[in-house]
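We modelled the chain as a single entity of 205 amino acids. Its sequence is:
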Amino acid sequence: MLSQLAFAVLAAPLLGRISPAVHLRPWLLILAAVVVAVQMTTYARVVVSMASTGRMQDFAQFYSDARAAVFEHRNPYERRLAPTTSDTLTRVNLNPPHFLLLVAPLAVLEPRPAYVVWMVLSLISAAAALGVILREVNVGATSLAGAIIIGAVFASAPTGALIISAQVSWLLWWPFCWSWSEAARGRWTSAGVVLGVLASLKPFL
């Protein structure tokens, strides 16, 4: 989340200055589009595979912990078998209680539909975050610089890692960028409130 924000913010002004003066050959644009398309296709296949096999990585733990706490009235912090393994590997829930309450609405669904909803919401949040970033650095999403940034972010290694792990980072990306945008406008109260909530979910913030 932070690495992708930093990349987009640093790259946007540079690309905005360079792209109008650089004549890109059509074949180069086509090659870049093919690379991004192949990468996105790979990500889609990963998501479909994870949903069909039930091995939903970190989301499986979020889901089982929220279900245990809210619907089964069990301690979500007790050591127990990881939901995606068949051996004796144990794990401990490292998320705060209010994070489990946020995941709880998905726990009313079966695991696979819940995972699909989780990923769709993550993609929506990521797209909204990119919209905030491009707006703040005055780069249009339909411009050459905007297209390069969007393509690079979605074809980058952090994106692959987030999709494969089904982590929560993308869901937090849009409110994090919104807080950054509010701070840039001097609206420190709203920025601080949102950042405080995010930090309670992810202490490294």
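As a brief sanity check on the tokenised model: The chain has a mean pLDDT of 78. The longest strand covers residues 80-81.
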